[in-house]
Amino acid sequence: MVRTTSTHSIGWTLALALVLPASAAAQAARPQSVTVKAGDTLWGLSRQYLGDPFLWPEIYRLNTLVVEDPHWIYPGELLRLASSDAVTAVPTTDTPPPVDPGAPVAQQSPAAPVRVQAAAAPDSDGADMSALFSQGRRNELMRETLRAYSDQPYRPLRRSEFFSSGFLTEGRSLPFGRLTGRVTPPQIAMISDKVTANLYTEVTLAPPSGGSYQVGDSLLVVDLDRDVADFGRLVLPTGLVRVIDVRAGQYVGSVVAVYGDMHNGQRILPTEKFGDAGTVRAVAVADGVQSRLLGGARNRPLKKPQDVIFLDKGRKDGVAAGDVFEVRRTVTRDGDKAVPEVMATLQVVHVNDHSATTRILSITSPDLPIGSEARQIAKLPS
Is 256 within 8 Å of 199 (Cβ atoms)? Predict the structure, then answer.
């Protein structure tokens, strides 16, 4: 019995002796920055350099001046992996080993510094949040990460809205491929008939006949919905996939954004280029384009802010991304006085030749009938 205990003790000692130096060496070898390559994601970089993919918000927090949307990083971008000396992600000195309780007091140096563990500051409502995190630094890191999401500069157009809102085909023949299944590591052949995909799921992709994809390509996963008279089929995005590899002649992608239910059999399209408008604000215009509502992305009778609405005017009519429209109706007040009333304010997030996709900014009347008048009231400076 004593022998077994001794063997286990020696084993643990040897394991610690091997693991601790290796861990310290790994921390010391971690680079201060990394250049993004095709196929990289914050999730993957965090797993590679921080040892935990769930710590990706820390890389995003350190690079908010470079990365606008954490779902989108691009080859050639230089990302910091560690903060400056003034704000370190980990303590600069190791925690001292515990004092042997059997050691004489006289052997401890009186000049040695005394470490005091500071109590976690209570939250504003008096609740002590320290139990949620292993260390006070982790609590601070979480708050900094949340600030990185909330303290963002104003942007009239957002990449996520551009890709997630959908559009009308207008009778065009589009190069649809297919999302064919989910990869089950490590064998690509293990693909079930009915699968769904979540963020960072690896999926297999089939390009259109005669087409091909390259590593780094971004693809929009879509459903084809109802026909809209004279404007073609309604294309509803369910997510974004980035091509990361070609294995055994099959294209493999990683899900980088989810907008709805993603499953095998859905169509995929190469993404359009998003035109970032910076931080400019729309300027009021007189005698703007007059259009009518074609209906919403979903056949819901009542609308709410951020719902998608389509207009019957597009690029060839003078409509552009970032334009602001008002949906109006005429009401009768005081018996016989006709007064125009604003029902909703819309912003164009995607534009085709003869139609536009908008998001509801504000709404006073949730019932927006198809055919209601919408007039352009503001445009982004060109």
Answer: yes
Cβ distance 370 to 229 under 8 Å? no
Identify the CA nearest to 225 among candidates 194, 267, 264. Answer: 267
Handedness of CA 130, 133, 137, 142 (dihedral sign): negative
Both tokens of 48, joined, read 């590679």
How would you write the pLDDT of the chain (382 residues) with one tens digit per residue?
Answer: 434 444 444 344 434 444 444 444 445 567 888 888 877 888 888 888 888 888 888 888 888 877 877 777 877 788 888 865 433 333 344 444 544 444 444 444 444 443 434 333 444 444 444 444 455 655 666 666 666 555 666 778 888 899 999 999 999 999 999 999 887 654 444 444 556 788 888 999 999 998 999 999 999 999 999 999 899 999 999 999 999 998 777 899 999 999 989 988 999 999 999 988 888 889 999 999 999 999 998 777 789 999 999 999 999 999 999 999 999 988 776 667 777 789 999 999 999 999 999 999 999 988 999 999 999 999 998 7
